[in-house]
Amino acid sequence: MSQVMHYPELMVCVLAAGKGKRMRSSLPKVLHPVLGKAMLEHVLHTVEELRPHKIAVVTGDGSDKVRAHIGDLANLEWVIQDKQLGTGHAVRQCESVCTDVEDVMIVCGDTPLLRCETLDALARHHRESGAKVTFLSAVLDDPFGYGRVLRDRDGNIVGIVEERDATDEQKAIREVTSGIYCVKQDVLFTLLAKVGNRNAQGEYYLPDIVPLALDAGMNVQAVHMNDVREIVGVNNRKQLAEAEAILQQRIIEDWQLSGVTIEQPHTVRIEASVRIGMDTVIRAGTQLLGSTVIGDECCVGPYAVIDNCWIDDAVQVHAFSHLQDASVGSDGRIGPFARLRPEAQLDSKVHVGNFVEIKKAVVGEGSKINHLTYIGDATVGAGCNIGAGTITCNYDGANKHQTIIGDDVFVGSNTKFIAPVRVGDGATIGADSIITRDVSPGGLTLSARPDQRHLPNWRRPRKKGG
């Protein structure tokens, strides 16, 4: 964001205690992911940008799961709402932690589209207007399900009525409350203590503080939202998908404006924690997941999947390659149809070709593994050429073993390394060899079980004219 925000006198209360029955899931509603991050994580990230005094998270159903997922962060206060008796009741549980602050902002944990700029506008208007209670409102084409903002003929706010308690005339009102409030700390809990539960649900509604504040002659303000989609709460899987689609469009547009080319963007998935460098091209059908970082001037796809990886500058990841928890150095070339599994670490200028799988292995600078090969639990040095059909036989049925290949090693096609085994620098392994013992540096090694021979004075062929 262009503006650095700081609200040291503000406490933010995030309401995340709802059971989410309509999600039909054993997972607490606020933990359902939207583009790779739980809904609650999106909200917490947004409010953290305000740099408030602290953030209180109100949990109820599944509180242990929620707390375990988020973790005990230094700026968080965890508050339990044992019984879900409404939003007003939820905020009341925060009274003991909302001390030594001037204002309390209340947001919902199931609104992953909320922007920090919007909350900043709310907090600034609240302070500049001298209001005791300020809330975000929006005008919706279809206001069904939201509390309606009631105004008199002069446009002054006179109250808020929930959907279930509204008359037919009130239901026709299109201005709704977002459920997001900023309230002076010195009046919030006094007002909440007066809120009753004589309504269709028998719950204590937070919006009921508005008529109470008005009756007491307090200044109540509403701030209109520029993008009404920000208040969209997620209550079922359909709404979850809709929220994800909106957020995905935002993310793609942001990257496009930051110098990233995205071909056929409606086919691409880029999750919220992904980072992409300038002049990189993301081709159709590609998925960038988790905390993936991609450098400058890369080309990814089409239909590549990169999950939680580090990709350095000028790397090409060709079609239908799948990378997970791996790292690729600069000027690398991956695929097509390659797979990098967890802990695959490729140095710069490494080529990994079609139908090659690498797992828990380090590959040195400039090495090439171009065809139909499995490299697992291994170290491959710099400048090596690994022929088609090579396999590091790392598993004996009970334990994994290491294959260590030195620098400038040439491995002929269809070679099998029966780990644990070491290959010295500059060695050449003849095609169709089965290596069961360590290989000395240099020379040519040939084997066909049970015999293995080493020719120490053999010289590797050179390219004509080289």
Tell me briefly what this model is.
By secondary structure, this protein is an alpha/beta fold.
Describe the structure.
With 466 residues, the chain is an alpha/beta fold. The protein folds into two domains: 7-231, Spore Coat Polysaccharide Biosynthesis Protein SpsA, Chain A (Alpha-Beta Complex); 240-455, 3 Solenoid (UDP N-Acetylglucosamine Acyltransferase, domain 1), CATH 2.160.10. Strand 2 and strand 3 (37-38) form a beta hairpin. It is built from eight helices and 40 strands.
What features would you highlight for this structure?
single chain, 466 residues, alpha/beta, UDP N-Acetylglucosamine Acyltransferase, domain 1, 14-stranded parallel beta sheet, twelve-stranded mixed beta sheet, 40 strands
- In total, how many domains does the architecture comprise? 2
- What would you give as the CATH superfamily of the largest domain? Spore Coat Polysaccharide Biosynthesis Protein SpsA, Chain A
Derived from helix and strand composition plus strand pairing, the structural class reads alpha/beta
Query: Any idea of the CATH topology of the largest domain?
Result: Spore Coat Polysaccharide Biosynthesis Protein SpsA, Chain A
How many helical stretches?
8
Instruction: Give the beta-strand count.
Output: 40
Nearest-integer average pLDDT: 94
- CATH architecture tag of the largest domain: Alpha-Beta Complex
